[in-house]
Amino acid sequence: MAARSDYLEQRIRTASPAQLHLMLIEGALRLAGQADKAYEANDVDSATQPLLRAMDITSELLAGVRHSEEDINVKLAAIYHFCFTRLTMAYVNTDREKLAEAIRVLGIERDTWRLACEKIGADSEAGSPAAKSEAVKGPHRPAPLAGVEMPAEGGLSLEA
């Protein structure tokens, strides 16, 4: 088990902010899936812990969106708020339907972040100007994706 822990720690230390964000989404999805399996087996007690952890991660994702009126921030906040609300409703009401809604949206978000991470990685390997500018922006500003204009102020906080 120590080897797995060491691997995970190294993966976290070397991950980009976008990769860390993706890891959080994947963690929330994994935990929500565990809760769903427990609900399916009518084992509400076993669903509690993973569902609470998925809620914690989702609330951190929501808190990590910078507060501004930029369109991307408003949309991301709405996505994470929706997921948090559905996970909470699933927890309070033992509602698999609400849990399934959160899982579906988190799955779409995971796929989106995977594509973004692949794009950033491809740009980095190619030595693109977008990848080079990421070092200047620091951990709070992801490299811009082709066709996506990032605001000068605001953006996403990927610290969560």
Task: Describe the protein's architecture and organization.
The chain is mainly α and 160 residues long. The protein is 75% helix and 0% strand. It contains 6 helices and no strands. It has helices spanning 2-14, 17-40, 44-63, 71-93, 96-126, 129-137. Helix 2 packs antiparallel against helix 5, helix 3 packs antiparallel against helix 4 (71-93) and helix 4 runs antiparallel to helix 5 (96-126). Residues 130-160 have low confidence and may be disordered.
What labels describe this entry?
mainly alpha; globular; 160 residues; 0% strand
From the helix content, strand content and strand pairing, which structural class follows?
A: mainly alpha
Residue windows where pLDDT falls under 50 for at least 5 positions: 130-160
The sequence of SSEs as H and E is HHHHHH
Head-to-tail CA distance between termini: 25 Å
Radius of gyration, whole Å = 17 Å
Short description:
This protein is mainly alpha-helical and 160 residues long. The protein has helices at 2-14, 17-40, 44-63, 71-93, 96-126, 129-137.
Outline the secondary-structure elements.
Layout: H1 2-14, H2 17-40, H3 44-63, H4 71-93, H5 96-126, H6 129-137
Helix pairs in contact: 2-3, 2-5, 3-4, 4-5, 5-6
